Amino acid sequence: MILKVARLGHPVIRTQALQVPVEQITTRDFQKLLDDMAETMREYMGVGLAGPQVHLPLRVAVLEVQAHPRYPDMPSVPLTFLINPTVTVLDQTTVDEWEGCLSIPEMRGLVPRYSKIRVQALGRNAEPLDFVATDFHARVVQHETDHLNGEVYLDRMRDMRTLAHLAEWQRYVLPALEHKD
Ligand code: NI
Q: Does residue 106 carry a catalytic annotation?
């Protein structure tokens, strides 16, 4: 089932999400929620979706990056569920890259993110996950875990003047990016 996505301005987007009780993870209702979140993310062509974005202030996020035909170098990330995640920064170096958000539709902005992090969480069957994420993968995790703390990428931007409507961004910024490759 495709869930309704909350946009910036809905109070749930600014809410500190609550820990998911471990015993709740394997229940039918919670498993259905995880499936619905994955389906919703794919429907709207996101690379991640967090609980608050579907009106649920719970510390759960889903990520998936499919290799893009036009950007074969873009690393893919398998479908991953992060429940009660914690992030430890392993490298203070930040990298600026463009981001968008399903809760802030049709916009792009340049956002600094740490390039290397350790992620500890529970997976969809409550199994412990512990992995190192770098670059784009690390970016997606940081974007989604920010949502669990009521934060969005706009809060991380160093220069709000980079904020752009998607159509204008595609027209003016994207060609310059492609030229660079
Ligand atoms: Ni987002």
A: no
Per residue in 113-169, pLDDT (tens digit) is: 999 999 999 999 999 999 999 999 999 999 999 999 999 999 999 999 999 999 999
Residue 97 belongs to domain with CATH number: 3.90.45.10
Within a domain: 95: yes
Rounded average pLDDT over 51-69: 92
CB 59 within 8 A of CB 30: no
Q: Between the CA of residue 93 and those of 68, 75, 96, 97, 114, what are the distances in Å?
A: 26, 19, 10, 13, 6
Q: Which of the following is catalytic: 39, 99, 144, 151?
A: 144
Q: Which domain does 145 fall in, by range?
A: 11-180
Mean pLDDT for the chain? 95
Give the distance (Å) from ligand 1 centre to CA of residue 178: 24
Whether 70 shows a pLDDT value over 70: the answer reads no
Classify the C-alpha dihedral 159-14-17-64 as positive or negative: negative
Separation of CA 101 and ligand 1 centre (Å): 4
Whole-number Å distance, alpha carbon 152 to ligand 1 midpoint, is: 6
CA distance 156 to 151: 8
User: What spacing in Å lies between the alpha carbon of 112 and ligand 1's midpoint?
Assistant: 15
